[in-house]
């Protein structure tokens, strides 16, 4: 009887092993579309930005912000110069550029609060830089600031290097 019980246990182990193998095989090669790649989040891929729209947004927003803060410039001349610049670009779509410019200009102007609250020294310095560039004929958005990476933060000179031996030490005693 003991020998029969050993055989039944051995068969049970083999049966469990086979059932588990079949189950796992079904997950790895099936056509269900469910894979570990579909379970994990993936970063969203942004479509390439339209440079015409980017420029129109930049110039329209700068026009609205400069007007709200009392800069003395001819906004209609700036708009005309900007649209002439867009017309000179290959594959120009000036109607799209004008629509994006006007939509941005009016939306930004409507959102800006009272100029005394909005037009701080820092804000007016940014506006002045952008407006000066645009009046000179540079309609591209300003270069984006480089974002600090984790490596940059960890390599900061203000912080001492991470020492794993000190990770659990406090006031001279280690845990």
Structure description:
The chain is mainly α and 175 residues long. The chain has a domain at 51-135. The protein contains 8 helices and 2 strands. It has a two-stranded antiparallel ribbon with strand order 1-2. The longest helix is centred in the first third of the chain and has 28 residues, at 2-29. The protein is elongated and about 70 Å long. Mean pLDDT is 75; it is low at 34-40.
Tell me the distance between the termini.
Answer: 56 Å
- The quaternary organization reads as single chain
- Cα-based radius of gyration, to the nearest Å: 32 Å
Helix-strand pattern, N to C?
A: HHHHHHHHEE
Question: Main sheet, how many strands, which sense, barrel?
Answer: 2 strands, antiparallel
Tell me the fraction of residues in β-strands, as a range: under 5%
Number of helices: 8
Spatial order of the strands forming the largest sheet: 1-2
Q: Which overall shape is indicated by the principal axes computed on the Cα atoms?
A: elongated
**Counted beta strands:** 2
Overall mean pLDDT? 75
Derived from helix and strand composition plus strand pairing, the structural class reads mainly alpha
* Percent in helix: 55-70%
Catalogue the unreliable spans. Answer: 34-40
Using brief descriptors, characterize the structure shown.
175 residues, elongated, 8 helices, mainly alpha, 2 strands, two-stranded antiparallel ribbon
